[in-house]
Design brief:
This protein is mainly α. It has helices at residues 6-35, 51-56, 59-91, 95-110, 113-123, 135-160, 164-171, 176-204, 208-213, 221-230, 234-263. Helix 3 packs across helix 6 (135-160). The longest helix has 33 residues, at 59-91.
Length: 265
């Protein structure tokens, strides 16, 4: 809408395609092509097969997909609850305290995720919170890594929220808990679902911290992809990567539908 002439619109589309195709679309298309290939010695893959997907949807790969889905779901829900609670609490604080709380939640983003993994490993390898070697330490690390996104999303939504709704409910005698559950949270539902989807997608693809923490019986799918490519099984690893992308996309589409319905209520 900012570009009015036809020639300028074509130029914008050309620049978009020149940037989008090689930087975003082409790498994904290469992974998709490799997932169906038995050999790739020229420009295009050869020896097309679906055998890699048979390996990517059964046995160890299927268990790893289930592990990733459970981990991402648990981490997203925990991050959403923690981030929402912190954003609501920060809204009632003075500006300097609110900035300090925001900085605390953003801190995991300021350091590499492997540092978060190491910190989690050190913190939960001694009693009374001895979680090393369990699935819970992986879920905790993922929660720490994605909570910042939930907190920032809800905080931004709170600043745009019209206080007139809360004031009207309070003036009619509604207690604070009722205002929170029946007024404020329903108004925040589109932002909450968006935050949940973002946290889920980030958790599904997290690798660095997971590599330091996962026990043998709780191997997420990104670890399996790394292991497959590390031993030279690039085509099988590509098929597993496509399964990971597809599962994540399907969940995000479901969350998007929920968000759309919530926006029109």
């Amino acid at each position: 809408m900012l570009v009015h002439s036809r020639r300028a619109r074509w130029a914008v589309w050309a620049v978009f395609l020149l940037l989008f195709v090689p930087l975003f679309a082409l790498p994904l298309l290469v992974v998709l092509g490799a997932s169906f290939a038995t050999n790739w010695s020229s420009v295009l893959p050869s020896g097309l097969t679906t055998a890699h997907y048979e390996a990517a949807t059964r046995g160890e790969a299927l268990q790893a997909l289930t592990t990733s889905l459970v981990t991402a779901t648990a981490a997203s829900l925990l991050a959403l609850a923690t981030g929402t609670w912190a954003a609501l609490a920060a809204a009632a604080l003075k500006q300097r305290y609110r900035k300090a709380l925001d900085a605390l939640f953003v801190l995991p983003l300021a350091v590499p995720s492997v540092v978060v993994g190491l910190a989690t490993l050190v913190a939960f390898s001694q009693p009374p919170m001895l979680l090393n070697g369990t699935r819970w330490i992986v879920i905790i690390a993922h929660t720490v890594l994605v909570t910042a996104f939930a907190h920032q999303s809800v905080s931004a939504a709170l600043t745009r929220l019209d206080p007139a709704y809360e004031q009207a409910a309070a003036s009619l005698g509604a207690p604070p808990a009722y205002v929170l559950w029946r007024v404020k949270l329903p108004l925040l539902l589109p932002s909450l679902t968006a935050a949940a989807g973002l946290c889920f997608a980030l958790s599904m693809g997290e690798l660095s911290a997971t590599m330091m923490l996962y026990p043998p019986d709780w191997t997420p799918l990104p670890v399996l992809i790394y292991a497959a490519t590390d031993r030279g099984a690039l085509f099988t690893g590509s098929a597993v990567a496509v399964v990971l992308m597809t599962a994540t996309l399907l969940v995000l589409l479901a969350v998007s539908r929920i968000r759309t319905r919530a926006s029109y209520r």
